[in-house]
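Cross-check.
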Amino acid sequence: MGSVKTDELSNKLKISPEISQILKNRKIDNEKDAEIFMNPSLDYLRDPFLMKDMKKSVERINIAIENKERIWIYGDYDVDGVSSTSILCIYFDSINYPINYYIPNRLEEGYGINEDAIKNIHSQGCDLIISVDCGITSVKEVDLANELGIDVIITDHHECQSEIPNAYAVINQKQDDCNYPFDMLCGCGVAFKLIQALTPKEEFKTSLYNYLEIVTLATICDIVPLVDENRIIVKNGLKLMSEGKNIGLKELIKVCGVESDKIGSSHIGFAIGPRINASGRLGYSKLGVELFTTKSIEKAKEIANILEEKNNERQLIEAKMYQEAEAIIESNERYKSDKVLVIAKEGWQHGIIGIVASKLTEKYYKPTILLTIEDGEATGSARSIKGFSIFDALVRCKDLLNKFGGHEQAAGLGLDSDKVEQLSREVNKFAQYELSEDDLIENIKVEFELEEHAINLDLVEELHKLEPFGLSNPNPRFIVRDAILKNIMAIGKNKQHLKFTIEKEKSYDCIGFNMAYLKGGFNTGDKVDVLFQLDENNFMGNRSVQFLLKDMRLSHPKNTSLNEDSIELFEKIIPDIDNLYKLNDVDEDAICNKMNASNIEEALNGNKNINIFEHITKNTLIIANTVNGFYNALSDISLVDEEICGEFEVSYNNFTSNNDKLQLIFSPNIDKIDIKRYNNIILYDYLYNKGDYSYLCTNANNETSIIKYYSQTDLIYLKNIVNNLVLDREEFISVYKIALSQKNIEINLKDIKKVFNMIPLKLFAIIKVFKELSLLDFGFKYDEILNIKSIYINILPKPNEKLNLDESKILKNLKELSKEYKESY
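Predicted model, tokenized:
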């Protein structure tokens, strides 16, 4: 695959063709949309009064201010809740109105509004509670507040359950009867909209900068899709953060060691956010609010240092808990087959469970529910994978639960400890219908193959134009193929990270965090394809490009004769008696016309100088004729967004499906394919002869594109196959003698070459001919326990008539195929 091309969009916006292609991959293909995407203006923020109960809430708050009522903000202990509480405190301070706030202690009170807290607030004097980032499931607690004469305004963004609390007002864009056009705001985003509604329009244009950095922090850390208003908030908030308007946040950024002028969404998500979360996880949630609301630099420095200490403490607890959870998984075979991991243990720290659940979900790519048991109750957190709503799963199990809440990808829950096993059974029963085995394989989307000339610090800088990255706008991932692997090693305190160099014309340093487990599958000198994010390494003032590894594979199997999957493919190449290749007539003019070529040689030439990922869509047929081409195709398909290509099917030789899925066929009979059905036909290998090309070109629709995604080098692989299909009599005699001496043979596929002294492809051709002539029978077995694939060969009773190989239709067919190949190339 070659570099992407300069186009109209890149010329108009003065951006590189690589950035232009990434925008197109996100369905942004015109100048206006691209400009809004890269420079989203705060003027595009939506009218907050479109939210249900917003007007009612503003009126109630204004009445409270006029009557000097006592207002409390009730928050949550994570980044989103702390940030939401902080911006409302900043707002009321800006209008000189005193309020109080309450954040529950995570370790003692758990998530959300609780009755003891309501009583506590009432005892101190309260007329109005404004909840932030919580409250949508607090039916009983709101009833208690009503009984005590306290009005409650709920602002939340979590999924609604069947019963909405009887609050004075409920602002949550996820309510069925709320017509707000964007329902993906985080809790702090909803609180921000309340402030927008409370503030006169002209005044808000300047006052919004008092809140923007903190709303940005919450939006990134709560992992909501970074589109629409979320993108507007974060893009502008990151710019503001580099200037450091909020004193507390500025000091925290310093403690993290992040250069404020270089700050990006990854720094927020992986460095700054965890330090706010750490204090909440260990029972010190108020520290975050104090940090964001203080006007003293000295106080800000002091709190920032305490948060750093708490984060270090959190990391130690997290590492221990993660190891213990891993030990539980390893010790029980059940977890290998379970589609949802449900793990419980006494003594685990409440506040750390969510982080560990996330890490386990990331490693095993399975939804995970992690619970700590205390005094007969199991409480904890759930995390999920793409396409599986953990919230819906918990709704199905609600009769087992004492409490739960959350959304599609994350939730909190509590139940009696003796019901944990039942929960595991029920949630896995639900997952059995909702998740296929393919769903449990992470789909990593790649933008395109990155050519060497484009790999530089300029592109790293330019990628910042596409920030913020997150849900719906992932950090771009690229692929580099056929690189030589150098200096591979495990690094880090626990040797958990992978560090290596790859070499093409130049060398590139690669780092794979928590990916040391890959090391065993590779050796120095291997040819590899790497999937990565482009990053900058700044060491001692020396800037260089660095690859952040996301996945790595061998470019080709090291030895196809010792690779079971490759050996099975070789068997598919040889046609059975009822599936012989048909040799098609050649119409060179039709081939040249369809391929826009002036001569047949030009028409058959392939082109890897394209972005193949643009062509792999639904209604696409992919054809591979060699093991190398098949694995390249399979790998590329796995990198395409499943929303674009949907599910895909793999078949061999013959084609029977009648749906519009993406199809990959290995070594097909071209004339048995309904060519007219496809928008695209991608050839990952040369076809066996001109007749196959002729059939494609004369039978495809005029609109069908035929993409020849191969180069002259790939012809070598096909040539090797054809050469090995030319069989001599001595080879037949050798195989028959070995089979006859043992009568019934069963051997590991990997031992074929050792036993028969020939490559598997030749053996399969010979035994298929012998089977046709009723000399033997053969088949394949798979031992699930030993994970071994084997072939058995049974000698049949000797026929009365003398063997005549010339009578074999398979052999005659292979000879014709070889002849046609040589005439074609």
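The chain has a mean pLDDT of 88. The chain is about 40% helix and 20% strand. Passed to J.P. for a second look.
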